[in-house]
Design goal:
single chain, 127 residues, mainly beta, three-stranded antiparallel β-sheet, 1 helix
Length: 127
């Protein structure tokens, strides 16, 4: 069995605009995002840290690093998933997020789980 089969984490993301917390006249656009992390490998793994790269439509980049997600460092057995919601604030009505979770397998092997790029967009801004 290869490491790619043993240590495999799938990340799904969905984002939504939060108009009640946004103030477009003040260049404040708030987005909620919902993440589901699924262990599709064959080894139990724990999420240790996160690294986000958030880019607005002006090209401004914010990097966020920290331990766990929402105060947790979930342990996922093969086939298990963990879901959570969080948010991000941009100065533009459109942006993107991407990044990675740093994981450790039950045998101590460390690996990254990529978070695919997803779009943050105020409704009716993109075609």
């Amino acid at each position: 069995m290869t490491d790619a089969e043993k240590y495999r984490i799938q990340v799904e993301a969905n984002a939504e605009f939060v108009p009640a917390q946004s103030a477009p006249d003040d260049e404040r656009y708030v987005f909620a995002y919902h993440i589901t992390i699924t262990n599709t490998g064959t080894a139990t793994a724990q999420l240790l840290t996160r690294h986000w790269i958030i880019t607005d439509s002006n090209g401004k980049v914010q990097e966020v690093r920290g331990e766990g997600v929402i105060g947790e460092q979930p342990v996922l057995a093969p086939g298990e998933n963990f879901s959570y919601a969080s948010g991000s604030v941009l100065e533009t009505p459109v942006g993107t997020m991407r990044g990675s979770y740093q994981m450790v397998g039950e045998d101590g092997h460390r690996f990254d789980a990529d978070i695919p790029t997803f779009v943050l967009a105020m409704p009716r801004v993109l075609h």
